[in-house]
Amino acid sequence: MARADADDRRFETPKGTRRTAFRGGMDKDTFGRFSEAFARGMGTSGFLIGMTVFVVVWLLWNTLMPAVLQFDPRELNFTLLTLILSLQASYAAPLILLAQNRQDDRDRVQIEQDRQRAERNLADTEYLAREVVALRLAMRELASKDFIRAELRQIIDELDKRDGEREAAESADAAGSVEHGR
């Protein structure tokens, strides 16, 4: 029960799930990380060079040394070396497949996150495109500089005309009152 409570407090473990342990106290995630490290190590040039050196030394020792010092003689077709390499291959293949499965799971999650991000980006882009169109339409309805200048020129002309008519009327009134006053 204490193990389940400890798992519920861990952030990377979904709430309410239990981690199942393999023999020896190693859980699935730890074993998965081990398999990935193993697969990553087997894919390096250092591993291939080291394995080549190991096999060459093995073959030379069991070929060139006196029969008393050979532990896997050539006459028996290097049976022990064959068994060791077969054992390594029998463990390497499932560990590599497990590492690939874990990578596939991570890739699926990443692809889903990328798809969701692309959908959000598309929605944002469409929204911004609609806003740009709305702004362009609104800009067409706004008065341009030339239109405002023409309107102001027309108003100034009307005001000048009114001022001229008012001055003419005032001059006529002033001339009429001068004639009446005589």
TrEMBL record:
Q: Does the keyword Repeat apply?
A: no
The record's listing under InterPro entries reads: DUF1003
Q: Which UniProt keywords apply?
A: Coiled coil, Membrane, Transmembrane, Transmembrane helix
Which named protein is this?
Answer: DUF1003 domain-containing protein
Q: Name one Pfam family in it.
A: DUF1003
Per the record, the domain of life is: Bacteria
Membrane-spanning residues:
37-60, 80-99
The top of its lineage is: Bacteria, Bacillati, Actinomycetota, Actinomycetes, Micrococcales
Kindly list any coiled-coil regions of this protein.
101-128
Task: Region Disordered: list its residue ranges.
Answer: 162-182
**From which source organism is this entry?**
Agromyces protaetiae
